[in-house]
């Protein structure tokens, strides 16, 4: 049993040493082994709990106690119960009882042993709740009888000896000493009772007899002893360090986290030896944590020792510092700085993780504060808008009131109280809410032969519409064919308004409306007119407010739903992006979270590592730039799913991207690095965001301000999608004199520069939220009234490309990527490499995109040579053109990336050109309404028939012979067909004009050919058609089929280029669709003849006729597929990073 002893009265310790026993004390840092220890700073509190009287006894200690491990503290509590944190078991009780019978078995728990002069050991017995220093017996000695009777139980003593002292439970580092010991006698200086925890338990009431004076005396003595010991140890350290020529030491010597230390500097040994003031300036953990500056003070120590106190934080693993004079004189350890290791706390990696957690918390705090500021700003904005709207409503109510007042005054001038032989009211004097009887002479008007008579009425010039509907009854009056009705006068009526009819509202046929003037009667006892108009204005104001509230709520609900659908679409697309390579690599979980462990699954069977006996993964983060560098190669283990192998990777908190490649051996060998692109998986929830990239597009088209074909759409939509990923995007465009500037916001002249023998003006504006720089050379090259079509187009666009690079150079732009498009801006690639790459734009890389290989093959081939990466607009088209001479040598850097459509422009939920907004949830109702509107607009028969739409340029590339065949085939199947498009070739245009005349004559109710471009009509066709036919002979990407699916129309396409990549046949392409994370979505065909298109179109029309319960859900499915720029933007960002790798 361990017994805590408390010193109540001062004790002195005397050691008597005999030759027959050696007592070996090995000073060390930390706690003594097999002991429960307590901080000396807690002694005072322990004294208050366990007062004790002086006693003499013998202690025997082993000579090797410094080699044993440490244990925690156990102390007796204030009521004499089992010590806090320590549970006495029956075994312990039995051991205690047995120990009482053993000679020399008494052990005591002591708080401090001080070696004052290396000749005697003074002991002070004590214990508290945290630490104690334990002494283990090596031999047993006889115990003094009086001490045995006083204690009556076994006790534990902790004894330590140090020639450098101890503070806060830590001892200085000294040499081992061997001392002959016979016995250590502790004599009573002041007699009293010594209480063990058993004694305290039995005599707990005795503790109430202690006095405040006793406590204070004990505390003062203890503090004095501690201070004396500390001084002696520091003096020893100072003397020792000075003798060795060390100008610096700290106390305690073992620095631990979350403690105060004293730093000592011998000024005479420092470069500051002549300075009157000395300061320490420092921080922790390589100067990254909690900086400090403290003045040092001259000490009492021998020599020129100065000191100060510094608190070591709990997060520290190293203390870094220098000394200086408060001005410009430093002692920085020969420019290496001073540093002291901190033991027992964090290491550098743990501190890095701690900093990341701190940064995360700081970011969360900043995010909350920002959200609160935004909320308050939004509330303020709403209040201001509400105030402005309220003022506007009041003004409008005032205007409306004056208008009504003027009309009513004009009306009241001509109003009578009755008309002889036509109508009158009884009583003649009445007011609002009165019940009156209105008489009507049936024979006076057009209702003379009506069987029934009704009054339809209102008040104040029909201000609230129809509010009175009463059937008239036959009157007993004999001087005419009089009828009457009982009418309650509206309470706010100044004038009554009515007509007579032969039936109730919605059923009457014949009316007497007083020759289109209606009937009116003054209300004689109406409310005062001024009060009425005040109330009227207030009512109008409230009505306007309510209408505005409902309108704003509907608009807000629609905006929220649009944003929610957009976010859901992005989420689905990201999941599809992550699964796009599942046949090779994927992670579990799919969405990798920073700070978590993730499993990477890899299928070597589908890669160059097929058949290899081993697979190793090499992994890093943040596109191989993470501060910890690449992780060591890890051998992957066999997974449960087929040929896959797996490895587990810990993702750090500061990761935003996970990067990996695979190899056959630990030291390399054959690598799978995805053809130089590497494998990348985004990491979510990290505290570090991906640094934004700066992309500059140099192009000659841009929708909607300078659009000729699909190139303009790509430049705008791709730029917006990449900018939405938090990257910086600029566009450089010629300033044509035919620009549609109505779509340019904040358009203004910015500056001029000279190049190419001419002045070039730079204009700036925002197009679809993008920053656009317009270059206007004063040589007139772009003042031609057109984009293409000049004889010198090559010269014009070559000049523009060179001028664009010069603009970047002269204006200090340093883009990461310069993206050029098609033959028209292809010269950027070689001009950059030849003239600018080594002269100020070295950071940039060039990406070149082929939109159509039909034009400018020479420029395209040269750009392929010079570009860092090149693309075309779909994977299948990239394969179809791979054999072309300009492309074939560069397949290693040639990639196919699908185009997308802009979901904000093509959005059936927010489309102003269609009659009913719809989503996938009400696609059937929405498309039905659009079909009816389309039939009405074009004069087609309003019938529930399959409607085929064709929206295209009429060129041979688009398969015009197949288009004609599809029109006739649809009509043969009793369907309707609508074509919208025109031909740049007059011969083809005239051919379709003749076809249109023929069809409008023979099938006027089921066919309509609109041979021009009509933007609103195109939206209505996409929404109203059941099918959209795209039978192109070749199609690099194609946007028509993508837009059709956005509106729930089913595409019927030929299998080529981007059409094959986006349309998956419902009967034949289920597996191909699933590989892309999609469901089948249309009908496709091979060949370029009538048989092929008949096969697809007949299946489509038959499905519409025969299985509508299957066809309607298909419309919903295609609407929910995301063909926006969400995924292509991610693919392009991968390509941009690969270009910079």
Automatic annotation (TrEMBL):
Q: Give its E.C. classification number.
A: 2.4.1.21
Q: Which domain of life is it from?
A: Eukaryota
Residue ranges annotated as compositionally biased, kind Basic and acidic residues, are 92-104, 198-210
According to the record, the residues making up region (Disordered) are: 69-110, 195-218, 365-399
Q: Which InterPro entries match?
A: CBM25 (IPR005085), Glyco_trans_1 (IPR001296), GS/SS (IPR011835), Ig-like_fold (IPR013783), Starch_synth_cat_dom (IPR013534)
According to its UniProt record, which protein family does this protein belong to?
A: Belongs to the glycosyltransferase 1 family. Bacterial/plant glycogen synthase subfamily.
Indicate what this protein is called per its UniProt record.
starch synthase
Q: Which organism is it from?
A: Hevea brasiliensis (Para rubber tree)
């Amino acid at each position: 049993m361990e017994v805590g002893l408390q010193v109540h009265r001062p004790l002195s310790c005397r050691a008597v040493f005999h030759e027959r026993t050696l007592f070996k004390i090995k000073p060390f840092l930390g706690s003594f082994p097999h002991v429960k220890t307590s901080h000396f700073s807690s002694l005072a509190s322990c004294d208050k709990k366990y007062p004790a009287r002086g006693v003499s006894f013998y202690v025997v200690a082993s000579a090797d106690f410094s080699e044993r491990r440490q244990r925690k503290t156990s102390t007796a509590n204030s009521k004499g119960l089992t010590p806090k944190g320590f549970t006495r078991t029956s075994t312990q009780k039995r051991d205690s009882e047995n120990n009482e019978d053993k000679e020399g078995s008494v052990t005591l728990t002591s708080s401090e042993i001080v070696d004052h002069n290396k000749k005697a050991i003074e002991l002070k017995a004590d214990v508290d709740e945290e630490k104690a220093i334990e002494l283990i017996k090596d031999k047993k000695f006889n115990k003094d009888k009086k001490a045995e009777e006083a204690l009556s139980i076994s006790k534990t003593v902790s004894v330590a000896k140090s020639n450098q002292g101890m503070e806060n439970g830590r001892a200085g580092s000294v040499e081992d000493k061997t001392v002959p010991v016979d016995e250590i006698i502790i004599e009573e200086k002041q007699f009293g009772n010594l209480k063990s925890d058993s004694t305290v338990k039995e005599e707990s009431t005795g503790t109430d007899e202690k006095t405040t004076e006793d406590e204070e005396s004990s505390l003062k003595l203890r503090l004095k002893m501690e201070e004396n010991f500390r001084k002696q140890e520091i003096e020893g350290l100072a003397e020792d360090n000075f003798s060795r020529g060390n100008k610096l030491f700290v106390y305690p010597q073992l620095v631990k986290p979350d403690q105060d230390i004293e730093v000592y500097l011998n000024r005479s040994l420092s470069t500051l030896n002549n300075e009157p003031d000395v300061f320490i300036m420092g921080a922790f953990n390589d100067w990254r944590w909690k900086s400090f500056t403290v003045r040092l003070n001259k000490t009492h120590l021998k020599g020129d020792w100065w000191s100060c106190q510094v608190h070591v934080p709990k997060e520290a693993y190293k203390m870094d510092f220098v000394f200086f004079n408060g001005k410009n004189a430093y002692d920085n350890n020969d420019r290496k700085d001073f540093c002291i290791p901190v033991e027992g706390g964090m290491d550098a990696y743990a501190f890095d993780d701690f900093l990341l957690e701190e940064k995360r918390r700081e970011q969360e705090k900043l995010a909350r504060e920002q959200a609160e500021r935004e909320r308050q700003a939004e509330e303020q904005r709403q209040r201001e808008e509400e105030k402005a709207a309220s003022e506007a409503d009041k003004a409008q109510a005032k205007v409306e009131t004056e208008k009504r007042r003027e009309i009513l005054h004009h009306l009241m001038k001509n109003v009578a109280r009755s008309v002889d032989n036509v109508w009158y009211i009884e009583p003649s004097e009445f007011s609002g809410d009165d019940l009156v009887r209105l008489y009507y002479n049936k024979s006076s008007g057009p209702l003379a032969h009506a069987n029934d008579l009704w009054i339809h009425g209102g008040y104040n010039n029909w201000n609230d519409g129809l509010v009175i509907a009463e059937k008239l009854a036959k009157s007993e009056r004999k001087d005419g064919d009089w009828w009457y009705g009982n009418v309650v006068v509206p309470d706010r009526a100044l004038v009554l308004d009515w007509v007579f009819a032969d039936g109730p509202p919605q059923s009457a046929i014949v009316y007497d409306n007083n020759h289109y003037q209606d009937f009116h009667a003054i209300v004689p006892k109406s409310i005062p007119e001024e009060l009425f108009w005040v109330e009227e204005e207030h009512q109008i104001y409230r009505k306007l407010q309510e209408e505005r509230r409902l309108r704003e709520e509907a608009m807000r609900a629609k905006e929220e739903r649009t944003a929610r659908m957009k976010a859901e679409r992005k989420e689905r697309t990201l999941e599809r992006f992550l699964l796009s390579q599942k046949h090779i690599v994927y992670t579990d979980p799919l969405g990798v979270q920073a700070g978590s462990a993730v499993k990477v699954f890899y299928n070597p069977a589908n890669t160059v590592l097929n058949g290899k006996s081993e697979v190793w993964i090499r992994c890093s983060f943040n596109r191989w730039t993470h501060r910890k560098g690449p992780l060591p190669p890890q051998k992957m283990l066999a997974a449960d799913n087929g040929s896959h192998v797996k490895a587990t990777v810990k993702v750090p908190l500061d990761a935003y991207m996970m990067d990996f490649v695979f190899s056959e051996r630990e030291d390399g060998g054959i690598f799978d690095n995805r053809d130089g692109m590497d494998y990348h998986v985004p990491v979510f929830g990290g505290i570090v965001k991906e640094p934004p990239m700066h992309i500059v597009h140099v192009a000659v088209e841009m929708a909607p301000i300078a659009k000729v074909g699909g190139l303009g759409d790509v430049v705008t939509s791709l730029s917006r999608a990449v900018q939405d990923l938090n990257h910086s995007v600029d566009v450089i465009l010629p300033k044509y004199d035919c620009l549609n500037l109505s779509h340019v916001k904040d358009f203004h002249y910015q500056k001029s520069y000279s190049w190419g023998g001419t002045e070039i003006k730079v204009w700036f504006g925002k197009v679809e939220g993008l920053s656009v720089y317009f270059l206007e050379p004063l040589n007139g090259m772009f003042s031609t009234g057109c984009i293409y079509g000049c004889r010198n187009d090559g010269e014009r666009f070559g000049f523009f490309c060179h001028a664009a690079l010069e603009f970047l150079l002269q204006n200090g732009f340093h883009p990461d990527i310069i993206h050029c498009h098609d033959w028209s801006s292809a010269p950027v690639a070689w001009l950059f490499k030849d003239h600018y790459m080594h002269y100020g734009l070295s950071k940039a890389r060039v990406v070149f995109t082929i939109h159509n290989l039909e034009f400018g093959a020479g420029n395209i081939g040269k750009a392929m040579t010079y570009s860092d990466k090149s693309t075309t607009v779909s994977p299948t088209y990239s394969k179809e053109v791979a054999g072309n001479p300009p492309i074939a040598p560069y397949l290693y850097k040639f990639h196919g990336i699908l185009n997308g459509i802009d979901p904000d422009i093509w959005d059936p939920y927010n489309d102003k050109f269609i009659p009913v907004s719809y989503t996938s949830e009400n696609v059937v109702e929405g498309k039905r309404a659009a079909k009816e509107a389309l039939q009405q607009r074009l004069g087609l028969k309003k019938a529930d028939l399959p409607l085929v739409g064709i929206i295209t340029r009429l060129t041979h590339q688009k398969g015009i012979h197949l288009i004609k065949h599809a029109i006739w085939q649809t009509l043969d199947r009793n369907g309707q067909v609508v074509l919208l498009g025109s031909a740049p070739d007059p011969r083809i245009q005239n051919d379709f004009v003749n076809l249109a005349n023929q069809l409008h004559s023979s099938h006027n109710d089921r066919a309509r050919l609109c041979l021009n471009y009509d933007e609103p009509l195109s939206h209505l066709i996409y929404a109203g058609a059941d099918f959209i036919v795209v039978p192109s002979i070749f199609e690099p990407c194609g946007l028509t089929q993508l837009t059709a699916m956005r509106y729930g129309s089913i595409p019927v396409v030929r299998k080529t280029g981007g059409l094959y990549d986006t349309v998956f046949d419902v009967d034949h392409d289920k597996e191909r669709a699933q590989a892309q994370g999609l469901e089948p979505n249309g009908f496709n065909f091979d060949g370029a003849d009538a048989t092929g298109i008949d096969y697809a179109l007949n299946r489509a029309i038959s499905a519409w006729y025969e299985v509508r319960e299957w066809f309607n859900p298909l419309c919903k499915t295609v609407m929910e597929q995301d063909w926006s720029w969400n995924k292509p933007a991610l693919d392009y960002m991968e390509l941009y990073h690969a270009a910079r790798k």
